[in-house]
Design brief:
Length: 299
């Protein structure tokens, strides 16, 4: 058995995941020790510290000789299918450098970043500008296998109409924006889609660096949403909320080189979809937050 102890609370949570195009969380967890052991042998690695966990992955600090690296193994699910391809496409420009990968097993060997230095405690204006600057660097043509935004969103838009927790005005506005924005001439740049403050870590050599993409191909305005949804409590309420939402959006869009009004339209589309997702995957508090963001963007 490899010398990696997986956190009990994380194991309990992942064990409850239903299959989503692959094994259940419980079935996958039973394979994790073998996957890690085989990866250590394949790439001549030794464990170099305790693991860190996310919603769907475990990351183990490792070394190959004197080189510090990070070994990531991810539960198979649709959002993670093209992570290795996206990282290979970016080739370390704005995103974590991919050293090696075995995508069929969900294994990625990555450069080691500082896991304790992210943007969650950085002044939010500065953090938004950092995120926008990274998004600008990540705007490259999407490789063909990455799913295109319109077909990716189509089933979610269709299901939204049948979810009673989604206000009718949100459904109507979102479907109207989808008809307007998801056209054949939509730009198809490679999108990260999950670049929130904790998915930016510091590289000693290259500075702030994006991690953990959920790649799709589409308009760069679709990438702004995470800076609004995260650190939500700092936005305030009422008129302050509306101002803070627009302020963050402008900071990110301008740093990313995206027209602010285009960014608002795409973020409003995504806000509606996020209301629908939250109504199924999260609790009432998350639904309320997404509805508040939708209203602030649409006023």
């Amino acid at each position: 058995m490899i010398p990696v102890d997986l956190p009990a609370a994380w194991v309990e949570r992942v064990s409850a995941y239903p299959a989503d195009g692959g094994p259940t969380g419980a079935d996958w967890l039973r394979s994790v020790p073998r996957l890690l052991e085989e990866a250590l042998a394949r790439w001549d690695l030794v464990v170099d510290g305790p693991p860190r966990t996310g919603w769907t992955a475990v990351v183990v600090p490792v070394r190959r000789g004197d080189e510090p690296l990070a070994l990531k193994v991810t539960w198979p699910h649709p959002e993670g299918v093209h992570e290795a391809l996206a990282l290979r496409t970016w080739d370390g420009v704005g995103a974590v450098r991919l050293v090696a990968a075995l995508p069929s097993d969900g294994l990625l060997l990555l450069e080691r970043l500082d896991p304790d230095t992210d943007l969650s405690e950085v002044w939010v204006d500065e953090a938004c500008e950092v995120v926008g600057g990274l998004l600008r660097r990540l705007q490259v043509p999407a490789p063909p296998p990455v799913p295109r935004l319109a077909p990716y969103l189509a089933p979610h838009l269709e299901r939204m109409e049948r979810r009673p927790a989604v206000p009718r005005r949100v459904v109507t506005r979102t479907l109207g924006l989808a008809r307007e924005l998801l056209s054949d001439d939509t730009p198809e740049v490679l999108l990260h889609t999950d670049l929130h403050y904790e998915n930016v870590l510091h590289s000693p050599a290259r500075g702030w660096t994006a991690i953990d993409p959920k790649p799709v191909a589409g308009h760069p305005g679709f990438d702004v949403w995470p800076v609004l949804r995260n650190r939500f409590d700092e936005l305030g309420s009422g008129a302050a909320l509306r101002w803070s939402v627009r302020h963050r959006l402008s900071l990110v869009a301008e740093a990313a080189g995206v027209d602010v009004e285009e960014a608002r339209a795409w973020t409003l589309l995504r806000a509606g979809i996020e209301v629908s997702w939250a109504s199924v995957l999260e609790g009432e508090e998350a639904v309320t937050a997404c509805i508040a963001l939708h209203k602030a963007l649409d006023e």
